[in-house]
């Protein structure tokens, strides 16, 4: 028998999937990382890196909502300006 035949294949550890398509999925993924750390399934460094990445990613949702709110405020301002220009108030 050759050495290759005696070798056993050790697969790398499977890291869980973290869905991030919505703010709710991102929140749940964040909670999952925290639970994994508390249960000592991941180390401090992995925890820190995941939390940093998820925090950065979650900030994208905040920026998106801020932009949506700014657009809504602009629409309201335009409507108010149009009403004021007509002298209805």
Structure commentary:
With 89 residues, the protein is mostly helical. It has one domain (18-86). The chain has 3 helices and no strands. The protein has helices at 3-6, 23-38, 44-86. The longest helix is centred in the last third of the chain and has 43 residues, at 44-86. It is rod-shaped and about 90 Å long. It starts with a helix and ends with a helix. The model has no long low-confidence stretch (mean pLDDT 86).
Please supply descriptive tags for the structure shown above.
mainly alpha
The residue-averaged pLDDT reads 86
* Shape, per Cα inertia axes: rod-shaped
Q: How far apart are the termini? A: 94 Å
Q: Evaluate the radius of gyration.
A: 25 Å
Largest sheet: none
Strand content: under 5%
Structural class: mainly alpha
- Report the strand count: 0
- Element-by-element helix/strand order: HHH
Q: What is the count of DSSP helices, taking H or I runs of 4+ residues?
A: 3
Percent helix range: over 70%
Poorly predicted runs: none
Whole-number tally of structural domains? 1
